[in-house]
């Protein structure tokens, strides 16, 4: 059973707005019990143009992971489920091929081996370089790189500035 079976179109649109993943767009579900860390990482992903929803516990995560995200980004220390158990449940569902990345601050070798057996995309130790994580996510869900901000000014102004710099050097 999915949300589409229970909710009206209006309710589905409201849910899409809340979780910040546009309907039909592959996004990331970030699952982390640490609210501050979750918000920082979610903001980083959103700033990079990656649609992102966040939840704090395994029960909410499982419901959403089984619904639509293009990738699950899980942190190992969760209050109601551990990340490996969550991935196991997803692997036994209709979303068995959902890519998942696990972040861990205190993993052991057995956790990494178990994650590989569950075919997670990657098992990363925290702290993780955000640019590495963003690249990994983009490569998996096909999110285009964020375009650099456009400079304001007259057309050709940057080229003139560059020529002036080269001439005066």
TrEMBL record:
Residue stretches making up the Response regulatory domain: 27-141
Annotated keywords: DNA-binding, Phosphoprotein, Transcription, Transcription regulation, Two-component regulatory system
Basic and acidic residues: compositionally biased ranges: 154-169
Gene Ontology MF: a single term: transcription cis-regulatory region binding
Sequence segments annotated as region (Disordered): 144-169
GO biological process, one term: regulation of DNA-templated transcription
One term under GO cellular component: protein-DNA complex
Keyword Transmembrane helix: no
Name the record gives this protein: Response regulator
Upper taxonomic lineage: Bacteria, Pseudomonadati, Pseudomonadota, Gammaproteobacteria, Pseudomonadales
